[in-house]
Amino acid sequence: MKKCLLALGFWSLAGCTAPPERPNGGKDEPDAGAPCFIGLEMGQVADESFLPFQDDQMVDVVLGFQGFRFIEGAARITGTDAEFVSFRFHVTFQDHSPIVQDRIAFMTSLPTGARLAENVQIFFNDIPMTELLDEHPRLDATATAGNCTGKQTLSLRLGDGGTCDDLTEGGTLFPDGGGPCADAGL
Length: 186
What we know:
The protein is mainly β and 186 residues long. It has helices spanning 2-13, 129-132, and strands spanning 36-37, 39-46, 49-52, 57-60, 62-63, 69-78, 84-92, 99-109, 115-123, 138-145, 148-159. Strands 1, 2, 3, 4, 5, 6, 7, 8, 9, 10 and 11 form an eleven-stranded mixed beta sheet that branches.
């Protein structure tokens, strides 16, 4: 009996006790420091509808004033109620240095419960239009809303949307043969 009491006393001193009761009846909950993920789909808005980009889709480059070249993008975000989303775009080209850009956009609610970020431009200002059209860049998009992150990778084919007709001449003519294209001289 003394041996049993001695063993029991040693066992209790060693810290062997009953396991603590788990909160919420033992249901698992995510750790506060665990990664939080949101859904991200890059695309465009047309006729008041969101159209997600498909891999290897032709996307028109807009020629803006003062020679800006960009894709007029949008994003559908799921899994958050945040009002703002931060984007980081990493665009990888075969024949040019990668482009890294950051954007912040306001989001509105969609009837599906998702959120929509519009006017999310991705710029290609340092690459002449004729060279852009020969490229098929890879777009790595990361969106952060609150503490949650979503990612998407796409391959895009860049088009001119009919802005410049004669690209063999360096993209310098309007389709009607008139004045210089917005890319002329850059």
